[in-house]
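With this grant's support, the team has encoded backbone shapes as discrete tokens. A representative record is reproduced below.
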Amino acid sequence: MKTITKDMTIFEVLQLCPAIEPVFTEFGMHCLHCPISRGETVEQAAEAHGIDLAKMLARLNEFYDATK
């Protein structure tokens, strides 16, 4: 079973599970398709937006696991 990690880019997460966009927006991340998302990791995005990385990863993986 694949897990979303802090080292994955936003683009990789969206490719893995396109339906996960609302989880990112829950955390105030709205520019998911901007060019930066192709190279920005989940960890970098969390830091840039002042988001608790552990909470976001837990929620992303909870959502992803529920979609399998």
Notes: The chain has a mean pLDDT of 92. The longest helix spans residues 53-66.
